[in-house]
What does this fold into?
Amino acid sequence: MEALRSIIGKVASGTTLTSEESEFAFDSMMSGQASPSQIGGLLLGMRVRGETVEEVTGAASAIRNRMPRVDAPCDPIGIASTNDTPFCSVNVETCASFIVAGAGVPVAKHTDRAASSSSSTANILARLGVKTDLTPEAVARCLQEAGIGFLFASAQYPAMQRIRQIRTALGTRTIFNLITLLSNPVGVKRQMVGVFSREWVQPLALVLKNLGAESVWVVHGSDGLDKITLAGPTFVAALEAGAVRTFEVTPEDAGLPRHTEALESGDVDGNAVALQSVLGGAASRYRDAALLNAAAALIVAGRASTLQEGVALGQEALDRGAAATRLERLIAASNE
It folds into this structure.
């Protein structure tokens, strides 16, 4: 394709693409028209030069237009993170998702399917009895019956399998580390996103604004976590009423203690037990981290006005067993 070769040439020369050019290029990838060498060259060229807001907007639009849609019977919030920070942790976002759902806000959590990580959402859910290889119709049923559903990128659009092989061969982060979490098949308008680098906090909020989001928090912890951290400040870009503002939050803002020790991962069994322990009401650093991130998601959803209010709602969902009930309902609904 001459048009695609021209776009690759622009990237190779250091020129940035318009959102339309980026959308065309990534649509070519998703449709199978681009060769593996063209895909690899484009991804690497953009990574070396540095991706722009317009390019990420166009790429995410292409994926959104190609993927199967999930017709949610509710108005869920999206919770996602890049899941590629330098050190592992127990799966805070997954635990936070059950807390948010237990507080009465439906959650459509979108993530990529990790092949081997002991803290991956898919592995932990499978160990708990949740079926994860679901059709869009089955995910919609989970949202209806359990108030929570999990969507896995590689399962929702098979074209990602071919691109995954190329990304693995490149051995470095690419724009796909950003656009996967922006491509929730439910088409959520409210979203909390954790990102691997502080430099992407504000740009991703602008991308989500371009894509039609209404309420967003993009976060990066000062310790490198792609989530709100207990160890110190977290950098935030919030989309509110059509404008993006940046600020910092700390655990103390939420009325939670600061923890400097890392939340270390165990094996799949250990992480599944840890999640069940939090949902069962046990106090721990993991519980505090999940409550902190759930509180921010409840602000994005419009259910809380402050982190302290969000933590209180989350604690209530845990203490009365509502968060644990969401897991039980998800297990049942996913296996129907």
